[in-house]
Specification:
Blueprint: H1 11-32, H2 36-60, E1 65-70, E2 75-82, E3 85-88, E4 97-98, E5 104-108, E6 122-126, E7 129-130, E8 134-140, E9 146-151, E10 159-162
Antiparallel strand pairs: 1-2, 1-6, 2-3, 2-4, 5-8, 6-7, 8-9, 9-10
Length: 168
């Protein structure tokens, strides 16, 4: 009696294949999920882009803009002058930025010449950038590391640096 060909895989072939796939997945999956520092870097990068947007709006001269920092909530948002008051910018791309409290926090480092001069951490912007020097740290909760965004009026653009920097 002739044997007919078997359509399928043996149990051993299936087990070896699953074993190899599981090893490959264990190597790849940790690199797919962003780490906590990557989340902080993205928050700091978004903050830097908001500063660039504020500088560009200040350069247009069409309205007065400023940046509001709320360190208790770990958030920031651009504001535009409407008569006597400042209102949050009504642009979905510029929704208030926030650092996830489970990942890190915002720390504002005042310049030596700025102590006591900023009211309520609202920094006005002109066509040259911020009126006052600005240094904000995005600090990790789990390790002594993070990212620093700094911007002085004499600089053409804000800087994003790895590590927790101080004013020189």
């Amino acid at each position: 009696m002739p044997r007919r060909p078997v359509n399928g895989f043996t149990l051993l072939e299936v087990m070896v294949t699953l074993f190899l796939v599981s090893i490959l997945l264990s190597l790849v999956i940790p690199h797919l999920a962003p780490g906590k520092l990557e989340g902080l870097r993205l928050s700091a990068s978004r903050f830097r882009h908001v500063l660039i947007w504020l500088r560009d709006q200040g350069a247009s001269g069409l309205a007065d803009y400023r940046l509001r920092l709320d360190l208790t909530q770990g958030s920031y948002h651009p504001e535009v002058r409407d008569g006597e008051n400042y209102l949050p910018v009504a642009d979905p791309l510029l929704a208030p930025g926030r650092v996830d409290p489970g990942v890190g926090r915002l720390v504002w480092i005042p310049d030596k010449s700025d102590l006591g001069e900023l009211s309520d951490l609202a920094i006005p912007f002109t066509r040259f950038g911020p009126v006052k020097a600005l240094l904000v740290q995005f600090v990790s909760n789990t390790e002594p590391n993070g990212f620093t965004v700094s911007y002085r009026p004499e600089w053409s653009h804000p800087r994003l640096e790895a590590g927790l920097k101080r004013w020189e």
